[in-house]
Design brief:
The structure is a single chain. The termini are far apart. The relative contact order is 0.11. The chain is 74% helix and 0% strand. The radius of gyration is 22 Å and the shape is elongated. By secondary structure, it is mainly α. The longest helix is centred in the C-terminal third of the chain and has 29 residues. The protein has two domains: 152 residues, no CATH class; 30 residues.
């Protein structure tokens, strides 16, 4: 009984300690994910995956219609998603780090399972399902990043992710500095 009380207390205080920056970064990450997924969605429409009506159209036009959910064609249901994936992804980006904080990993697993079962027997093309999987990978990755940045406040772990980029810049800097010193 004591464990369940502690878990309920933890669940009640999930939102304690979250800052405005946490929500701002969640919105930014949700928009980045939408942008990346819309690139692949526009490519699929352009290649004629959904209908012949979109085949061969200009990529940026399809990208704009997909990102802003603003297609007015007869086949617009294939482009317009009415921002539902963005809204769902935003709420996932908020809740997943908080669930990681409290140790409720089972809730994340069950949610992802329900999402996968919901798309299991649909008439989606393979690339649509792959976009769905890629979106989930991005949400989980950005949730992990948000967890480290704003919940654990563990910036060294984030720097560890960026370490290869920093290391490569240092190597290029040292190569250039050695070359400059040898020229002098």
């Amino acid at each position: 009984m004591n464990d369940s009380t502690n878990q309920l207390d933890t669940f009640k205080h999930l939102f304690n300690g979250t800052s405005f920056s946490f929500y701002l970064f969640a919105i930014i990450f949700a928009l980045v994910i939408r942008f990346l997924l819309c690139i692949f969605k526009a490519l699929a429409h352009r290649s004629g995956e959904t209908s012949a009506e979109h085949e061969g159209k200009e990529f940026w036009s399809l990208m704009k219609h997909s990102f802003f959910s603003a297609s007015k064609t007869s086949e617009s249901y294939q482009i317009n998603d009415y921002f539902l994936p963005l809204i769902i992804g935003f709420f996932e980006l908020i809740t997943f780090p908080l669930l990681l904080k409290s140790g409720f990993l089972q809730i994340i697993a069950v949610w992802l399972g329900f999402k996968a079962i919901g798309t299991w027997n649909t008439k989606n093309e393979r690339t649509a399902y792959n976009r769905f999987l890629f979106g989930n990978i991005l949400v989980l990755s950005f949730s992990y990043l948000l967890w480290h940045l704003f919940i654990l406040k563990n910036f060294s772990r984030v720097l560890f992710w960026l370490h290869p980029v920093i290391f490569l810049r240092k190597v290029n800097f040292h190569k250039n500095s050695r070359r400059l010193s040898s020229e002098l």
